[in-house]
Specification:
The complex is a heterodimer of chains A (about 160) and B (about 400). Chain A is an alpha+beta fold. Helices cover about 30% and strands about 20% of the residues of chain A. Chain B contains 13 helices and 12 strands. In chain B, helix 8 links the parallel strand 5 and strand 6. The structure holds pyridoxal-5'-phosphate.
Chain lengths: ~160, ~400
């Protein structure tokens, strides 16, 4: 039940309580209670919209930064990751396997903003060995959603 | 009046009155439709990619008449794993152009002139015409909401005459969403054996059942020899336009059907056959995902109709709901054409699936939740207005 609720919310968190209740075949009160619990337990971290900012005419650059760091005794990577994710311009931080340690995704108004962040804040940070910045040129798909116009329903309106 | 070149059999096939309604729908703009009988999901990408690969490689020749042996082997494995059916790939499976062709072949292969074909209704529209074209005589057997639109042994027994030869078993059912469970099938099997009938079991929606797993009548003791199992790729794998299905059954019957197929079709589309192999090998995860999505929509739509105060039988299969509109005092066709004119929503009158569909409408839920929501809002508004007027 919980799993099913999460799967539905992950795709569409705007679905109403009434609809959730119908689909899960429990009462609205039970749905509300379950959702509150999932939020409280931090299983559900939040709800947001997936937006094509380019279409909304907002200037926005996204960059993916590969970061190599020196892990700290006893703390591993957690401490440094935490120091990085505190910056509001950082939207995601992941610990990686392979040739580098952290993927940092950052959004800024201009490329210069991003470059400034890297050179003035990220690179000089204690424990950061090196960074490699890659700018996103075009977004095709994000979190399961495809950018661009909706695909048209090609089916006839009526068919037996 | 010049003479007609069209033979009387074909002339006798009624292009139903509903045709007019369909023509109006086809010409209207901005219709919110719940009218179609095919999935809204595109064919899973890995299957489409296989099709592209096959085209690139130029694998575009005919295959053997019965279809690629490799595909028949996969079908054989699929039927065994999913439904416990045992059919030999070599001589008990025929690959056809959709379940549609398999239905036609079955009728043409087994019917003698005048043989009666029992067809539970409401049901899909092609059984009776195929029976007629093959020289048979269709006999409608009414199913009702009281028995969850399941064919009952009683109703079957009553419809059987000396001339009865074939029983079509259209479950999971289009348009009602009804299914038959093992106990239903066991009871029916007794009547079928007693009267020595052959079953044409159209199981095209077998992968789309909710809460219970599909049971094929051919899996019951002694039934495999007297059943032609018809299935395909259209619904489960969302492959309607690929035009591919199959029939499985007794080797003598399959040999007969293959003969007809050989002379009329040669072989089913080659690219589709290769894509279907990929679908059966690696597509079950996609099937599951789509099934879960349909199930969600199903509950949403049933709830929506019940909220409107319409009786709505809970469908356990396919992707249709069949709510009753009897309380509104309109005929199915009136309801549908007024709903179309006044709210621009297209649904199908129950009468399209047999006269006992009067008082019902078929709504497909092979649509996104937002489309379903939009349609339900409009239908709700319409229903309220009709209540106030009556
Ligand atoms: C009950 C039933 N049988 C058969 C078919 C035909 O399927 P196919 O695309 O495999 O020819 C349909 C299609 O709507 C159907 O609903």
């Amino acid at each position: 039940m919980e799993r099913k609720l999460l799967e539905i919310l992950e795709r569409n968190s705007r679905i109403s309580l009434e609809q959730l209740a119908a689909v899960l075949e429990i009462s609205e009160a039970e749905v509300a209670e379950l959702m509150a619990k999932l939020e409280q337990d931090r299983v559900v971290l939040g709800y947001h919209a997936v937006i094509d900012w380019e279409k909304a005419n907002r200037e926005l650059v996204t960059a993916l930064i590969e970061v190599k760091v020196t892990p700290q005794r006893g703390l591993g990577f957690d401490n440094i990751a935490e120091r990085i994710y505190q910056y509001p311009e950082v939207t995601s931080v992941f610990l990686m396997s392979g040739g580098f340690d952290l993927t940092v995704i950052i959004e800024g108004k201009t490329m210069k903003d991003v470059a400034m962040f890297v050179s003035q804040k990220l690179a000089p940070m204690e424990g950061v060995q090196s960074t490699a910045t890659h700018f996103v040129l075009k977004k095709y798909k994000q979190e399961g959603f495809i950018f661009g116009p909706d695909t048209k329903d090609q089916r006839a309106a009526i068919w037996l | 009046m010049s003479k007609s070149w069209v033979n009387s059999r074909v002339q006798s096939l009624q292009p139903s009155g509903i045709r007019k309604f369909f023509d109006i729908v086809a010409q209207m703009q901005d219709v919110v439709s719940l009218g179609v009988g095919e999935p809204d999901f595109p064919t899973p990408w890995h299957v489409r990619e296989e099709g592209i690969y096959v085209l690139e490689k130029g694998m575009t020749t005919y295959t053997s008449n019965a279809g690629l042996l490799e595909l028949r082997r996969e079908v054989s494995r699929f039927l065994a794993e999913q439904y416990g059916l045992e059919y030999r790939a070599e001589d008990q499976i025929l690959i056809t152009i959709g379940a549609s062709e398999a239905i036609d072949l079955a009728m043409r292969t087994v019917l003698e002139p005048g043989d009666e074909v029992l067809i539970p209704e409401p049901s899909f529209v092609s059984y009776a015409p195929c029976a007629i074209l093959a020289g048979g005589v269709p006999v409608a057997v009414t199913t009702t909401e009281e028995t969850e639109f399941r064919l009952t042994p009683d109703a079957l027994e009553k419809a059987i005459t000396e001339k009865a030869k074939v029983l079509v078993l259209p479950y999971p059912n289009n348009p009602t969403g009804a299914i038959l469970e093992r106990s239903d099938l066991e009871a029916l099997a007794k009547v079928i054996c007693k009267h020595d009938l052959l079953v044409v079991s159209d199981e095209i929606y077998s992968e789309l059942t909710y809460g219970t797993k599909h049971v094929s009548i051919a899996s019951l003791p002694g039934m495999a020899q007297r059943t032609i199992v018809i299935n395909g790729f259209s619904k489960a794998f969302s492959m309607t336009g690929w035009r591919l299905g199959y029939a499985a059954g007794d080797s003598e019957i399959i040999a007969g059907m293959t003969k007809v197929h050989q002379f009329t079709i040669m072989c089913s589309p080659t690219v589709s056959q290769y894509a279907a192999i990929e679908a059966l090998r690696n597509g079950m995860e996609s099937v599951k995902k789509m099934r879960n999505e349909y199930d969600l929509r199903r509950r949403f739509v049933v709830h929506g109709f019940r909220q409107m105060g319409l009786e709505c039988f809970e469908p356990k299969g396919a992707f249709y709901v069949f709510p009753s509109i009897k309380s509104l005092g309109l005929s199915s066709e009136e309801f549908c054409s007024r709903l179309l004119q006044e709210e621009k929503v297209a649904v199908v009158p129950g009468t399209a699936f047999g006269s006992c569909g009067e008082g019902y409408i078929r709504c497909s839920y092979a649509y996104s939740l937002s489309n379903l929501e939009k349609a339900l809002t409009r239908i709700g508004r319409f229903v309220k207005r009709m209540r106030q007027q009556s």
